[in-house]
Amino acid sequence: MTTAQPSLDEIQRRLLNDFQHGLPLTPRPFEHMARELGTTEEAVLESLQELQQAGIVSRVGPVFHPNRVGVSTLAAMAVPAERLAGVAELVSAYPEVNHNYEREHAYNLWFVVTAPNERALLGVLDEIEARTGLRVLDLPMLDDYFIDLGFRLTWD
Q1: Contact 114/64 with Cβ under 8 angstroms?
Q2: Is 21 helix (H, G, I), strand (E, B) or coil?
Q3: Given strand 71-77, what is the order of strands in its sheet?
């Protein structure tokens, strides 16, 4: 089964491929990206916003090794199927949640929470529990494994 590829312009394709690693640590990283792409900073920001609105890109930003800057945890919830979309939307609305996803398991909603400190992190988990009425399973990292998820995309 093949799925239809979204229609992307050259700038969007290059943004997805050329900047998976090594985003410049400058006060204006998007301006630097624009120079490399031969376009404007405004065009880069607009393209990234379009990619996010289309659901192709979930976020643009640095990835830090866990618990080097603030604290983080993996969390899971057992959400009744009829509530899954609503609970996932609620969880995603928290700025401390950098992604969530569904799994085929009794614990079917998984997400990562980051916060400046342990107290703030636990506050987010407690608030999600209170707002949903569902238990949040806190799964703090015991061992650190880094998997590079960057890969070259190809276009037909």
Answers
A1: no
A2: coil
A3: 97-102, 109-115, 71-77, 137-139
Which helix (H) or strand (E) segment holds residue 42: the answer is: helix 41-53
CB of 110 closer than 8 Å to CB of 76: yes
Phi, psi of 117 (to 5 degrees): -155, 170
Structure tokens at 111: 């997400």
Cβ 73 vs Cβ 112: under 8 Å: yes
Q: How far apart are CA 145 and CA 139, in angstroms?
A: 15
pTM: 0.60
Give the confidence band of 45 by pLDDT, cuts at 50, 70, 90: very high
Q: Cα–Cα distance between 110 and 104 in angstroms, integer?
A: 11
* Residue pLDDT, tens place only, 20-44: 887 878 899 999 999 999 999 999 9
CA atoms within 13 A on the CB side of 88: 16
